[in-house]
Amino acid sequence: MVGIGPLIPSIFLDDDTFRADKIEISSKNDMDWLKSKDKGSFIYLSFSSYSKISSQLMEEIGHELLKCGRPFLWAIREGQGGEKMEDKLSCKDELENQGKIVNWCSQVKVLKHPSIGCFLTHYGWNSTLESIASEVPIVACPLWNDKVHNAKLIHDISKNGVRTNASEGGVVERDEFNRCIMIAMGSGEEGEELRRSAKNWSDLAKEDMKENGTSSMNLKTFANEFLLGHNDY
C-alpha cells in the first residue's frame, strides 16, 4: 500500500499563483460575506454531503454558535425530498443574524479562504486531508466507523485538531463544542500549538504534492508497477 494524498487540486496548494479569496464559492452573496470577515475569524461547519446528523446534535451546535458569538458558515445538506433540515432548529432566526447556513459550498475553496479560523467536521478522511493541506485547525466530532480513528490521529499524533467528547447520553453538548472551538480559535497556548501544527502539516502536504515529492513519486511507482504487470500478459 502506498500513500498518494492529499488528492486535491494542486492549484489550491500554491499560495503564490492562486488566491482562494478571489473566486466564487457557491454564490456572490457567500463570497461577499466571507470577504467582509476578519482574518481567522469565522467557523466553517460541515458533516459532508453524505452524513446525516441528529436534530439533537444540530440543536447543540446551533446554541454553541450563539454562545461563542463568532461568524460562521454552516453547510447543512437537504433532507429527503428537499427538506430544509435547518428549519428544525429552534434558534434558526438568531443564527441567520450571526452567520450563514447553506445547503452546499465548495469545501476546498472555503478552507483556503483567509477568513477561516477553524473547521468543525465529522472527520471524514477527505475533510481531514483538505484541512491539513489548507492549514486549518480542526474541531472533531466523529460520528462513526473510521472517523473515530481519524480523530485520534489528528488529536493525539499530528496535534492539529481538538476532539469533542460526548456526554454520558452519547451526545456532544453545546458547552463541549464551545470548549473545543475556544481552544482552536483562542490565543492561549493550546490554540497557538494547534496553529503551529496545522502550518507544519500543511507545509509537509505541499511538499508531498510537488513534482518528485513523496506523493508524486508513490503515484508514479504504483502506475509503473501496475502497467508493467499488465504488459506481461
From TrEMBL:
Query: What's the short name of a Pfam family annotated to this entry?
Result: UDPGT
Query: Can you provide one Gene Ontology molecular function annotated for this UniProt record?
Result: quercetin 7-O-glucosyltransferase activity
Q: Which UniProt keywords apply?
A: Transferase
Cited InterPro entries: UDP_glucos_trans
In terms of superkingdom, the source organism counts as Eukaryota
Similarity-based family: Belongs to the UDP-glycosyltransferase family.
Q: What is this protein called?
A: Glycosyltransferase
Question: Can you name the source organism?
Answer: Solanum bulbocastanum (Wild potato)
